[in-house]
Amino acid sequence: MELLTIGAFARAARLTPKALRLYDELGLLPPAAVDPHSGYRYYAPSQLDRARLIAALRRAGMPLADIRAVCGLPPDSAAEAVDAWWRRVSADTAARGRVVALLVDQLSERGTMSEPILRYAVRCEPGAVRDSNEDTAYASPTLLAVADGMRGPGGAAASAAAVDALRPLELSAAPAAELLATLADAVAAADRTVRASATEGHQPGTTLTAILRRGSQLALVHVGDSRAYLLRGGELVRLTQDHTYVQSLVDQGRLSPAEAAAHPQRALLVRALGAGVQVEADLALRTALAGDRYLLCSDGLSAVIAPEALHAALAGADDPETAVGRLVDLAYAQGAPDNVACVVADVVTE
């Protein structure tokens, strides 16, 4: 078998000779032969696949220790390991992105020296089909919240209990730096309350999406498939990710968003208060900017109103009262098959 010089092998593998020498020292890609007199390294053509894999993983940013582990696995297991690593990287990138977004907000010239306040409106309707209303919506100068109860008659009590667990925070003196930790503790308490309300053979549950304000800081907490949106500068951005089985399939690339919208299990939750193991809430911190408009809603609204119509209703309303009225009207125009809860709040300065 004809061996390749380190230079020829490096060109074929899209690596540098320096990188090949490092990988040899680490035991990651030892040469097929080394000249005992000159120390010159030679590589076999059969080593190219491994070298190209290493090169690709390095370009993706994978640490050498992880590459070593991947290279020691059979192809199927290696693919799973690479996918798991990338999901960790993506989650970390998203977390750092939220920190950067907060810093940009804080440094933005659009900020104001005056402390922002919230002007808000709230609606909670049973819908056109349901006899009962298991949703809860709440708004105050410091707290916005929507919860969607489930699993029968206990659902209404569960959603109310979840929102009630946050209301003591309206009077809390906790500083802005502790907002996320304070919210996390309150959600854990709400989860325990909902679990404690279970009766034999019946465990109610609820979603919870809420925003707590401290000065110019807004802390967002989210569990389930209720949603939070931000309208800023004419652009509508969804701030939350649905904790549903179908959304997990979309995240894995197994379903398209269009397929997910029509999937029969689109409402099946993988996270909710009172359900499964101890709940893990999504938490984020934002800076309130004058002119921002926030929407919190249950899936009775977001599931039946197209994103374009949602955007138009929010952007075209002069005030929160008009916005919630238009949104509820749109839900009823689509048949309102579920309870409808929504809160719209504008960030303004006095």
List the helices and strands and how they pair.
Blueprint: E1 4-5, H1 6-13, H2 17-25, E2 33-34, E3 41-43, H3 48-60, H4 64-71, H5 75-107, E4 116-125, E5 135-139, E6 143-150, H6 154-166, H7 179-196, E7 205-206, E8 208-214, E9 217-223, E10 227-232, E11 235-238, H8 245-251, H9 257-261, E12 282-287, E13 293-297, H10 299-302, H11 307-316, H12 320-333, E14 340-349
Antiparallel strand pairs: 1-3, 2-3, 4-14, 5-6, 6-7, 6-8, 8-9, 9-12, 10-11, 10-13, 13-14
Helix pairs in contact: 4-5, 6-7, 11-12
Q: What distinguishing features does this structure have?
A:
alpha+beta; Multidrug-efflux Transporter Regulator, Chain: A, Domain 2; 3 domains; five-stranded antiparallel sheet; 350 residues; 14 strands; six-stranded antiparallel sheet; Phosphatase 2c, domain 1
Structure commentary:
- The structure is a single chain.
- The chain has 350 residues and is of the alpha+beta class.
- The protein has 3 domains: 62 residues, Multidrug-efflux Transporter Regulator, Chain: A, Domain 2 (Orthogonal Bundle); 35 residues; 238 residues, PPM-type phosphatase domain (Phosphatase 2c, domain 1, 4-Layer Sandwich), CATH 3.60.40.10.
- The protein has 12 helices and 14 strands.
- Strands 5, 6, 7, 8, 9 and 12 form a 6-stranded antiparallel sheet that branches. A 5-stranded antiparallel sheet has the order 4-14-13-10-11.
- α4 packs antiparallel against α5 and α11 runs antiparallel to α12.
- The relative contact order is 0.13.
- The model has no long low-confidence stretch (mean pLDDT 89).
